[in-house]
Model the fold of this input.
Amino acid sequence: MLENPRSPRVRAVAKLTKRAARAESGLFLLEGPQAVAEALHWRPEGVTQLFGTPTAFERHAHIAQAAEAAGVPTECVTEAVLDAMADTVTPQGLIAVAHQFPASIKQIFADAPRLIAICEEVRDPGNLGTIIRAADAAGADAVVLTGRTVDLYNPKVVRATTGSLFHIPISVGGELGAVRERAHAAGLRIIAADVKGEDLLQARAAGALAEPTAWLFGNEAHGLSDENLALADLALRLPIYGSAESLNLATAASVCLYESAFAQRAATS
Done:
């Protein structure tokens, strides 16, 4: 039983809540039974350690069994130790450490994708995690993070993906201009989601959304810069029928991705 919240081992895990430590080590944190279970199911070879309270291991015996089957070292800890390790205020009893596994941009575009989400300067962890989750749900082939987008392995991003982090290829650190070239070479049209764009419904009626598409989403507060917007082949806006000033970025991205998913599936059915 690991009991000292100030021990070097505990501090080493707790440091992974910080970007610098994640970048240096190539590791990241998974908090809670859902995230840990997804990691053990989809990428068990990447999990290096599992910590949990005795109560959590008893309640989630299937997770402990999956860790044992995968050869993942498991250790019981006190509530105080778990609190010291976790990013959340009220951790759910289980924390795992895993290797980061960003996808290669080259490989993403080599696999003949039809639907991709590009996130340029998305800064809010909850928004990024939700966009990744929406892309996964809509059947997108990949997510590409460019510019100063928030760290994919930020604990808040990881939680917001609710496991989709393990289901869909995600690349990090790309430069938008280079990504644009790869997208075009792979036959994708880049469509920017922007309030200054054309009406999405008209584009849908014209069949534009049935084409292989890389949706481009910008910063929550400022959107896409004029320079980055110019890299898109088309800009579309979602109509607002009520009195809302605007849509949350992740909500808008979800609608855009699903509109393309609907159109592409209708075209091939």
In short: The two ends are 56 Å apart (CA to CA). The longest strand covers residues 189-199.
